[in-house]
Amino acid sequence: MTAYVRAQRTGTEAFARELLREQNQTLRAIANILDVAVLGCDGTGRPILYHQAARDLVGDRLEGCAAEHRPERLHLHHPDGPPLDPAYQPLVRALRGEPVRDAEVVTRMPGQPRRISSPAP
């Protein structure tokens, strides 16, 4: 590989990194103005977007927690009452490639009011 090709590739990679950084900042700014909790996850279920309203809702309960264990950690339930089976958690379903639309999940954290979320993948 010539020095010219190396310089071209380095410049393109730097531009792509800068563009990605700007998009990330914009997405975080949008999430921060929302008064609802927004948790964005990567393809493995690891949270990558976790703004203040989300921190207020779940605190540090997601630290080191695999997606399939979140129903217990977050006290997730079906809207009609029973605890949510980990296999049917919207995030786990989305990670399996299943389309998820209008999935209602109730969060019943001890000492906090009941909250309902309807995630969109």
Would you write up a description of this structure?
- The chain has 121 residues and is an alpha+beta fold.
- The chain folds into two domains: 33 residues; 82 residues, no CATH class.
- The protein is 40% helix and 12% strand.
- It has four helices and five strands, in the order αββααβαββ.
- The strands form two sheets. The chain has a three-stranded antiparallel sheet. The protein has a two-stranded antiparallel sheet with strand order 1-2.
- β1 and β2 form a beta hairpin.
- The chain is elongated, with a radius of gyration of 18 Å.
What is the mean predicted local confidence, pLDDT? 79
Tell me the number of structural domains: 2
Succession of helices and strands: HEEHHEHEE
| Beta content | 5-15%
How many distinct helices? 4
3D shape: elongated
Q: What is the rounded Rg? A: 18 Å
Strand order of the largest sheet: 3-4-5
Give the distance, in angstroms, between the N- and C-terminal Cα atoms. Answer: 41 Å
Low-confidence spans: pLDDT under 50, at least 5 residues? none
Instruction: Determine the fraction of residues in helical runs and give it as a percent range.
Output: 25-40%
